[in-house]
Amino acid sequence: MDLGIKDRTAFITGGAGTLGLAVAQRLAREQARIVICDANEEAIARAVGILEGEGAHVLGCRADVTSRDEVGAAVARAQERFGGVDILVNNAGFARDAYLTRMKEEDWQAVLDVTLQGAFHCSRAVLPGMMQNRFGRIVNIASRAHRGNPGQTNYSAAKAGLIGFTRSLALESGKFGITANAVAPGVISTPRMRQRADYETLTERARQNTPVARLGDPEDVAATVAFLASTLAGFITGETVHVTGGRS
Questions:
Q1: Which of 56, 86, 89, 240 has CA atoms 20 to 30 A from the CA of 33?
Q2: No. of H helices and E strands in the chain?
Q3: Does the global pTM surpass 0.90?
Q4: What does the pLDDT average to over 221-231?
Q5: Burial class (CB in 10 A: 0-12, 13-18, 19+), 128
Q6: Side-chain half-sphere of 194: how many Cα atoms within 13 Å?
Q7: How far apart are alpha carbons 96 and 151 in whole angstroms?
């Protein structure tokens, strides 16, 4: 199936991590041009090497998404190399878990800053070009945690905020041919997850409590992002797609 994104440019934040790289690889298979934006230069080099080895047209850009100037410079590089940004995947984010009474203020702020301020800076940087071209796809990586998880008040608040951001952005930008949607993954099996001491317990719990009786894979999320980034999804905007295997 042709997703209609050949030669489109996709800018992926947190693109050198497990999930971001899976998204990049999926979009590259559709012959999109890839910009890996990440704060970790060593990880960027690794991701770029993997993608180039798979035949992708790829650019690596180091940027802290909480910095307007660094994001602006990275987007400018993408525009110079590929002529613009057509697809933005706001994937940068992380968890720093603790019960609220024990949570450090800096951990509260860091999680909100990367998730929300990052999406703000990146979206604002690419929107003028998308508006001019009358085409754009913005996909924000939220989480099932937006419904609330104990020990994750910062993460849950950030992801819930990202969904509100997505809805508002969709209402603002639809008249320019731009869609904005969120993807809310459930528990995804990543290398970090598989290193957890309770990984087998989590896997068994997933088999028992999830209609699709397994943990998710990064490719499950990547496939959903690819569809929302495609021309096939041009009449879908402001939505949150839960990639949870049916777990509510």
A1: 240
A2: 9, 7
A3: yes
A4: 98
A5: exposed
A6: 8
A7: 9
Q: Which two tokens stand for residue 88?
A: 């933005």
Determine what percent of the chain falls in helix, strand and coil, rounding each to the nearest 5: 50, 15, 30
Q: How far apart are CA 184 and CA 206, in angstroms?
A: 17
Q: Where are the alpha helices (DSSP H) in 134-197?
A: 153-173, 191-194
**pLDDT of amino acid 47:** 98
Give SS3 for 210. coil
State how far the Cα of 83 lies from the Cα of 69, in Å rounded to an integer.
20
Report phi then psi at 10, rounded to 5.
-110, 125
Q: Is 201 exposed, middle or buried (0-12, 13-18, 19+ CB in 10 A)?
A: exposed
Residues 37 and 128: their CA atoms lie apart, in Å, by: 19
Written as six digits, the tokens of 156 are: 């849950």
Residue recorded with tokens 């899976």: 22
Q: Which residue has tokens 């990146």? A: 122
Catalytic residue among 82, 120, 135, 155: 155
Cβ(86)–Cβ(80) below 8 Å: no
Distance of alpha carbon 240 from alpha carbon 143, whole angstroms: 10
Q: How far is CA 152 from the centre of its chain?
A: 19
The pLDDT tens digits for 154-206 are 999 999 999 999 999 999 999 999 999 999 998 888 877 787 777 788 778 77
Task: Tell me the three state secondary structure of residue 223.
Answer: helix
Task: Give the span between the Cα atoms of 191 and 180, in whole angstroms.
Answer: 29
C-alpha dihedral sign at 60, 19, 69, 172: positive
